[in-house]
Amino acid sequence: MSAADNLAARLRGQSMIDDPFLGPVTAERFAAASPAWPQHGQWSGLKPGTVTSGQRRSVAEFDFIPADAAQPVLPVGIVWDETGVRAVARVYYNKQLAGASLPGSDVVRAPMVPPEPGLDLHPTMRRYADVLSRGDEQGLLEVLEPGLTVRGPLGVPIAADDVRAAFAAMIASGGGVPVMYVTCTDDGSRAALEFISWRTPPHAGLGVYERAPSGRIAAFRAYEGPVRRTSPADEPAG
């Protein structure tokens, strides 16, 4: 079986799938109507990325490869959640990248996951959340690893000679990013965090953060969008 076939089979086994366009739907409805169905004709295949596993929850990353080579790759993050009585999946991608002509592509995805009681973040992630929200440039430099890579929700890495310095300056210039983490899946070196960005209006997203041996964040990938920004900074929310 191909990677797309394997993913489709797992999606079919979910009691519910929450999609940026459709909201919570059955697997049958997701297969029929979501642009992120892996066997959709617009995709020639997909490239599996990392999988972050925790207790009864895992987060898988994929790049959906378009059949039309002129179209962009679609980064997709999927939260496989078995913490409740039913197996559910929450799918994250940028709606405008997936289908700018589709109805609702310009509508932000409202928060749909309540904060997990007693959410236990790795100390690096607690520190990052604090300095990110305050726009503390020096604090960000301290928690981010030299050689940092950042891939935004459009699948485009930040291009700069020093991505760490550029990212910290960008966040600081916008006055910080008002993010609340609501779930945490952490395998000891990587954290996949669902979040609410308290912009106007608030929106839901997923961030995946790789930690270096130093404990600092070495890579960040965002799955969200569209985003309504209340500041001029053009940064990924998480």
Question: Can you walk me through this structure?
Answer:
39% of the residues are buried. Residues 230-234 have low confidence and may be disordered. The chain is built from 6 helices and 11 strands. It is globular and about 50 Å long. The strands form 2 sheets. It has a 6-stranded mixed beta sheet with strand order 2-1-6-5-4-3. By secondary structure, it is α+β, with helices and mostly antiparallel strands. Helix 4 runs antiparallel to helix 5 (137-143) and helix 5 (137-143) packs antiparallel against helix 6. The protein has 2 domains: 3-99, Nuclear Transport Factor 2, Chain: A; 123-223, Nuclear Transport Factor 2, Chain: A (Roll).
Please state the overall shape, judged from the principal axes of the Cα atoms: globular
The total count of strands amounts to 11
Helix content: 10-25%
CATH fold-level assignment of the largest domain = Nuclear Transport Factor 2, Chain: A
Beta-strand portion reads 25-35%
User: How does CATH name the architecture of the largest domain?
Assistant: Roll
Give the H and E element order. HEEHEEEEHHHEHEEEE
Unreliable segments (pLDDT under 50, ≥5 consecutive)? 230-234
Biggest beta sheet attributes: 6 strands, mixed
The largest beta-sheet arranges its strands as: 2-1-6-5-4-3
How many separate structural domains? 2
- Report the structural category: alpha+beta
Mean pLDDT figure: 94
Intertermini distance: 34 Å
CATH class of the largest domain: Alpha Beta
Oligomeric state of the chains present here? single chain
Number of helices: 6
What integer value in Å does the Rg equal? Answer: 17 Å
